[in-house]
Design brief:
The protein is α/β, with parallel strands linked by helices. Helix content is 29%, strand content 31%. The protein starts with a strand and ends with a helix. Bound molecules: flavin-adenine dinucleotide (FAD), FE2/S2 (inorganic) cluster and magnesium ion.
């Protein structure tokens, strides 16, 4: 069977984090901020989701940014420009509700910073004032600092080890801004689950509407398999078709953390097998 999705470029933008531009004209034509694709790297590959970070309908291209954490993302990272990805399905998920909210704080942690890029761009386009907060474990893992600085009205940076910006977490930066009297009409966050939970805990007492993009395990991405089940406001929701964005104050983050660990053992075995085969 003919392979379909040509990789046009690939660059390492931080250790173990790659940006890839792929020819995918139909997806590029329909993509909207907040949506994602589901890929299969080769014909034996598992299905896994990645966010649409950028797209160009004229050139027929999409841009993905991914962290190599396990077998599928490592295999994807090995595909050279000019070679092909077996399958890409999308755009999937609901687009972000972009409106003129006023002053929006947008927070990205780790590879979640890639997710916030289309948010910031779309929010700015309709006239919002955007305060962006990005964070990573260390300075060399910070993503899209230049791009987000150019788009945002102001940007704050935090690193866990203090190698750049404020030492601490993105939620600490948000907390200190709020304590100084800064007012936000909306807060949006994407990143590690514990970061999104911390952001929700910071905004809850201030009653600021807070949206998070959830990252549960996804397989089909169309509401059929149930693997992306999350509990929001006490109700079961499927993140692929009901999300991936939800009201952070309603999300059961503990359950999400536990469900993300479901296949840890199998993932470790598969990763070891991949290393043994290299
Ligand atoms: P594995 O070793 O298989 O898994 C490592 C960990 O990743 C697991 O413990 C689990 O927590 C998670 N994971 C595994 N399989 C899946 C799966 N099928 N679906 C979701 N999570 C899984 N990562 C990025 O780097 N960039 C992105 O833009 C991005 N966007 C995402 C958008 C959505 C809507 C979701 C749900 C996840 C997104 N992710 C993104 C996470 C990405 O899908 C996982 O890192 C990837 O599936 C890991 O696969 P693996 O085989 O390399 O690692
Ligand atoms: Fe299968 Fe959402 S990924 S139902
Ligand atoms: Mg995997």
């Amino acid at each position: 069977m003919a392979k379909k999705f040509k990789v046009l470029s690939k660059e390492e933008i931080a250790p173990q984090i790659k940006r890839m531009v792929i020819k995918a004209p139909l997806i590029a034509k329909k993509a909207k901020a907040g949506q994602f694709v589901i890929l299969r790297v080769d014909e034996y590959g598992e299905r896994f989701p990645l966010t649409l970070v950028d797209w160009n309908p004229n050139a027929g291209t999409i841009t993905l940014i991914f962290q190599e954490v396990g077998v599928s993302t490592k295999k994807l990272g090995k595909i050279a420009p000019g070679a092909y990805i077996e399958d890409i399905v999308g755009p999937l998920g609901n687009p972000t509700e972009i409106d003129r909210y006023g002053h929006v704080a947008v927070i990205g942690g780790g590879v979640g910073t890639a997710l916030i890029y289309p948010w910031v761009r779309s929010l700015k386009r309709v006239g919002n004032h955007v305060t962006t907060i990005i964070g990573a474990r260390s300075a060399n893992l910070l993503l899209l600092e230049k791009e987000l600085s150019e788009l945002s009205d102001e940007i704050y940076i935090s690193t866990d080890d203090g190698t750049k910006g404020i030492k601490g977490f993105t939620s600490d930066v948000l907390k200190s801004l709020l304590e100084k009297g800064r007012k936000f009409d909306l807060v949006m966050a994407a990143g590690p689950v514990l970061m999104m939970k911390a952001v929700a805990d910071v905004t809850r007492p201030y009653k600021i509407k807070t949206i998070v993009s959830l990252n549960p395990i996804m397989v089909d991405g169309t509401g059929m398999c149930g693997s992306c089940r999350v509990t929001v406001g006490g109700k079961t929701r499927f993140a692929c078709v009901d999300g991936p964005e939800f009201d952070a104050h309603e999300v059961d983050f503990r359950e999400l953390i536990n469900r993300l660990r479901t296949y840890r053992e199998e993932e470790q075995i598969a990763l070891q097998h991949l290393k043994d085969c290299q």
